[in-house]
Amino acid sequence: MINGVCFLLLRLMKKKIAIVTGGYTGESVVSLKSAAVVEKTIDTERYDVFKILIYPHNWYHETASGEEIPVDLNDFSISLNGQKITFDGVFNILHGSPGEDGKLAGYFDLLGLPYTTCDALTSSITMNKGYTKAIVQDIPELFVARSIQLFKNTEENTAKILKELRLPLFIKPNNGGSSIGMSKVKVPNELQEALDKAFAEDSQVLVEEFVNGREFSIGVYHAKGKTTVLPATEIVSSKEFFDFEAKYSPGVTEEITPGRMNEEEVGRVNRIIEKIYSKLNCKGAVRIDYFLEYETDKFYFIEINTVPGQTETSLISQQVKAIGMGISDFYNELIEEMF
Question: Is residue 120 part of a domain?
């Protein structure tokens, strides 16, 4: 009898966590893969977990039998077996819009519901690559590639780009992720096609000069009163750049964790990463991509991902394991940081 009472009390004490996944963009496929890993890895001894799928005009919880239980958007609750379930917090693993661009964060803020990722302002700013570069560019020891931000796909763009920037160039959607719509342009006659491809994904496009250097991606998070910079992953791709295929197709890219940096480079990178995290007022775990230029060894900021992938082979997962930490313990720290 006593054991039964203890079990019931334990159940009542467990926090209810909604894992938010899906999305309105092509990144939803990656989001679902990440959510599947979080769902099976999260500590169910401590948390009751409910996966919430968010699609345009369709927010729902899917039961084990496949039934879709609609979410009440008035308070982000569900009704399950005649019982109303509200959540103590949200584990946000929705890449792209609306999970990474601040829209969901603003909604949760209105409800007073905590979540594991950056707030609405930081999320919306960091989703915009051009605005993010403008904010971080004065951080000591950090460099940014020369770039132009375009707001309309006009005939005048190619002449402006070729006048102000040097080839080769990277053309990318300004608010996109997973390298969707991104191109590397080496000669002028490739430029318009690359612009058309990027504008097909976004109304804003960033054009920036190519930096010839070693590419890295590094995770950083705040928990238990301190900011932890994880070991960087070095990206060695057999492709021209770390595009969608290179990111998600086995064998295309070699990922080395920890990346090959000397002691000075590690110290300098960690200083810069902490300052980026602080200046952008980040929360939870984020991932920052950067180059170390071959000739100068300068740190060139590429972009920040505020809802990084959480699949079993994702870069963040590799980096957490590299410090000897269990992924479940990592998730525990992210969740407890909400409260």
Answer: no
